[in-house]
Specification:
85% of the residues lie in helices and 0% in strands. It has 46 residues and is an all-alpha fold.
Length: 46
């Protein structure tokens, strides 16, 4: 179990920058979509 866990840790360490970039990308895309939805609807409706 410990050897397998070490392998997972190494993989996570190498994948962490990619995962961070993907997370930032998801936040940026979701934020852009959210802003577009707000702009489509009148402020009074909200």
């Amino acid at each position: 179990m410990h050897a397998g866990g070490g392998g997972l840790v190494d993989t996570t360490g190498a994948f962490s920058p990619v995962a961070a970039a993907a997370a930032v990308g998801l936040v940026a895309v979701s934020g852009a979509v959210y802003i577009r939805l707000i702009r489509r609807r009148p402020h009074g409706a909200a």
